[in-house]
Write a structure and sequence with these properties.
CATH superfamily of the largest domain: Aldolase class I
Main location: cytoplasm
Function: Transaldolase is important for the balance of metabolites in the pentose-phosphate pathway.
GO molecular function: carbohydrate derivative binding; glucose-6-phosphate isomerase activity; transaldolase activity
Distance between the termini: 96 Å
Number of strands: 24
Helix content: 40-55%
Number of helices: 40
Strand order of the largest sheet: 1-2-3-4-5-6-7-8
Structural class: alpha/beta
Organism: Methylobacterium tarhaniae
CATH class of the largest domain: Alpha Beta
InterPro entries: Aldolase_TIM (IPR013785), G6P_Isomerase (IPR001672), SIS_dom_sf (IPR046348), SIS_PGI_1 (IPR035476), TAL/FSA (IPR001585), Transaldolase_2 (IPR004732), Transaldolase_AS (IPR018225)
Radius of gyration: 35 Å
Amino acid sequence: MNPLKKLHAEQDQAVWLDFVARGFVQDGGLKRLVDEDGLRGVTSNPAIFEKAIGHSDEYDDALRTAGDRRVIDLYEGLAIADIQAAADVLRPVFEASGGQDGFVSLEVSPYLALNTAETLDEARRLHKAVARDNLMVKVPATPEGIPAIRDLTADGININVTLLFAQDAYEQVANAYIEGLERFAASGGDIGRVASVASFFVSRIDAAVDKLLDEKIAAANDPDEKAALEGLKGKVAIANAKLAYQRYKRLFAGDRWQTLSAKGAHPQRLLWASTGTKNKAYSDVLYVEELIGPNTVNTIPPATMDAFRDHGTVRASLEEGVDEAERVLAHLAKAGIDLDAVARQLVEEGVQLFVDAADKVLGAVAGKRQKFLGDGLDRQALSLGSLDEPVKKAIETWRKDGLVRRLWQRDAGVWSGADEAQWLGWLTIVEDEAKKAADYAAFAAEVKQEGFTDAVVLGMGGSSLGPEVLAETYGPQPGFPRLRILDSTDPDEVRAVEAAVNLERTLFIVASKSGSTLEPNVFRDYFLGRMRDVVGRDKAGRHFVAVTDPGSAMEKAAKEDGFRRIFHGVKQIGGRYSVLSAFGLVPAAAMGLDVAAFLESACTMVRSCGSDVPPDLNPGVQLGLAMGTAATVEGRDKVTLVASPGIDTFGAWVEQLIAESTGKEGKGLIPIDNEPLAAPAAYGTDRFFVYLRLEDGADAGQDAAVTALEGAGHPVVRIALASKASLPQEFFRFEIATAVAGAVLGINPFDQPDVEASKIKTRELFSAAETNGSLPAETPVAEDDGFALYTDAANAEALRKAGAGSDPVSWIKEQIGRVKGGDYVALLAYVTRNPGHLAPLQAARVALRETKHVATCAEFGPRFLHSTGQAYKGGPDSGVFLQITSEAPDLAIPGRSLGFATVIAAQARGDFGVLSERGRRALRVHIKGDVAKGLDRLKSALS
């Protein structure tokens, strides 16, 4: 008789075999193995399943058919079908054995091995999904897994306990099984239909102990001691298993067990796992021949099975040499080797090995998904130069520590352990909002039917920058109003918006999360007052919609004023992460974009950055790790954004996201947007470049410049967009990337303490001005007919010591003289934002970069207060600031005693006040008279 068949017949020894998904079922191989070798069960594990994913056309065909979705669900569905098919093939064995053999074993995700509650939920889900009574759910014997084993057994679920190494742990597992049966019986369950195996890993113990023995042998001087230690090699695992079997016999023979046995309970069989011989010096059938005994299972690898068929010896070996086994373990302890400590380490390593295998499965799935998506997914390529190895290490750390999963689980420990979990609603907002697509479509139809010619967003920061990208990228849609943005309290900008529209045919979208932000409130007050003048008080509210968080002051006011509609944001989403929520989607619908298609495009990136995509294939995580590592390892904290024409306004949105999220606690990334490209020599070693390239609108000059930067060794990330339609993907990519970069920096990326400080100071100044009739007077440090300069006492003293005199230009030159390597210069202009005013600022920043080789920013206030202002005040102290203010004819605000000129002046002073409090190098240049002439003069001084 075949030794394997003889083993089955004489010793009730079952053999289980790893089940290769699809392969065995498709060609009848599983049934053949059952027929030939009387297999008692099969197991499914990630390492085997990964091979099936790599080679199965059926999986590929299913993926192509499904298109873009959370494809791990699809693969799991196919695997569940395989498990069900295997269970059905083994059903006759199961029935013939009275429900003791013929099982298929399915493993709970190894990512849950250290979480009891999640292990319970997942095991119950898998049990329900397969719906076969010859299924065993595989649960590791970690400290967290043992109570799950008890509770699952109490549910009547068959359990395959895995990762057992220590006898004490085995006894805990056996007792958990017994207690689970008692509870199941007490609840009226039929314990006779419950089966379990305890998988005791064997050869891994010898591999670990032999290594420790070799170290002891090398350190020993006594030849007898060396020989005694040498004699222990290759014996510890067998001894450990034999003594575990003795515990099995005791545990399943006492009165407690007899009570259960009388009710039909079956003992939990010991299963010998890891029975292939790892040391070539040992017999290739060692862990089969020495572990044969009643009511046990041996999971023999195919090669070992073939070896045993050829020359294995069948004997009842499991209870041979028990006394010798005890002596072996006693001698091991005397030698100073703690077997329990070895077992604990092996459990930890075993969990990690399972995690590694699962990561390979997920990586295979993600890789195939990316392949089949083709141009449907915006491509990302990293050319990191000297950062390549540090970023690879960061990626491996994130994989090994499961940080992508923890991020999606909203674990605040990924960051600072503060309140981060309360601000992660943006992770699932795309799917949530997709369910409301019909409501957005109805709103769009309503706007179109009303015949509005313009829709104006009244907001700041996250409420305005995202909609601005949509307006500038996609432009007016046929039959829908033109989308405009007002995010400046500059009187001339307010006048310009009013002059550009016909109020009777204009819809205003008032956007404010809290409803307490000054700017949206004064915008609403002004245009609601003007609308009442034009169409009457009763009809004015129909020209307004509000986007705000539930219960806000804005919601209350909108109801009182009869707004057409109120859309709610999500309290768990901060403003800068809100573009894929109502704050971006209401303007998108109003301008005629297909919100459903918009969200579906975004969802492609959401899935690509999901918890089941390993960091090396996860575009958002990969980008975030690259940005964070560049800053922490090489000081490359100036994230320079380059974008093709047609999508170039995207940088202003990214600028806010990165700066406001990461710039705090003296750390941060400083985004550099809209800085004209130059030759590599113009840049210092603090740069990190991100190039968003629009495939159907790329600029050849940008291509050449970026290629030159790569060639010079600057780190560059290239992101390729097939068309503007895929831009929604980039919103989510950068949201994930910024959150990950914040984790690398070790800060909370969801608060904005210094923005709040500026808001508070502005409100205080404006309230005082309303009471007193004007802002308090100031004394300039230098003045002439064109400029008046202001700064705080500390900066004034430093500049005077450096050589600043009575001439304002000398102060400007000395301010720029403070710039050193690694700094950046920020021109903060509280003037009307238009091309004429931007041109001299751009020329000045280019001149500064060429002479100082530093990064430069040109920002318009007050909009940057809700954007880069956080990083300027709370980030690294590497900024040199020139604030620019001017005088403009005031514009009254209905219901308020002061107008927009006072508002913007209060904002500028509040901003400067916080810069001073933070000890920043700041100087304010106030332009008297003509702003254009003043900016040209400033450009000359800076050049």
